[in-house]
């Protein structure tokens, strides 16, 4: 059975198809969700080499992700970006 897709998201609850190719899916997820005040350096380094960085950031912005590093940006950086675009 083939799953129906909406904006790259599987309606049966699976992750967006690009997430399978994301470098973060092959590393420790805790690096992408550091404790308050924790370093984001390692996560951003990984994002910098990732082929799906743009898709990841687009997903985070479109789904109002409030925690973690997505597309190489922290939540604060994503808020700033949204303000500049608006």
From TrEMBL:
GO cellular component, one term: cytoplasm
Coarse class of the protein's main subcellular location: cytoplasm
Cofactor binding notes: Binds 1 [4Fe-4S] cluster per subunit. Following nitrosylation of the [4Fe-4S] cluster binds 1 [4Fe-8(NO)] cluster per subunit.
PROSITE patterns: 4FE4S_WBL
Keywords carried by this UniProt record: 4Fe-4S, Cytoplasm, Disulfide bond, DNA-binding, Iron, Iron-sulfur, Metal-binding, Transcription, Transcription regulation
Cofactor(s) annotated in UniProt: [4Fe-4S] cluster
GO molecular function: 4 iron, 4 sulfur cluster binding; dinitrosyl-iron complex binding; DNA binding; metal ion binding; protein-disulfide reductase [NAD(P)H] activity
Family matches, as InterPro entries: 4FE4S_WBL, Whib
Positions that bind [4Fe-4S] cluster: 24, 47, 50, 56
Protein modification: Upon Fe-S cluster removal intramolecular disulfide bonds are formed.
Domain 4Fe-4S Wbl-type residues, every copy: 23-80
UniProt-listed Pfam families: Whib
GO BP, sorted A to Z: cell redox homeostasis; negative regulation of DNA-templated transcription
Domain of life: Bacteria
Subcellular location: Cytoplasm
PANTHER family assigned: TRANSCRIPTIONAL REGULATOR WHIB, TRANSCRIPTIONAL REGULATOR WHID-RELATED
HAMAP family referenced in this protein's UniProt entry, alphabetically: WhiB
Role this protein plays: Acts as a transcriptional regulator. Probably redox-responsive. The apo- but not holo-form probably binds DNA.
Family designation: Belongs to the WhiB family.
Protein name, entry field: Transcriptional regulator WhiB
Gene this chain is encoded by: whiB
């Amino acid at each position: 059975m083939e799953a129906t897709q909406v904006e790259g998201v599987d309606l049966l609850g699976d992750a967006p198809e690009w997430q399978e190719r994301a470098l973060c899916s092959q590393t420790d997820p805790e690096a992408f969700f550091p404790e308050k005040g924790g370093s984001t350096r390692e996560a951003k380094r990984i994002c910098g080499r990732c082929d799906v960085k743009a898709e990841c950031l687009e997903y985070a912005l479109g789904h109002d992700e409030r925690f973690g590093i997505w597309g190489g940006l922290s939540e604060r950086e994503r808020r700033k970006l949204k303000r500049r675009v608006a």
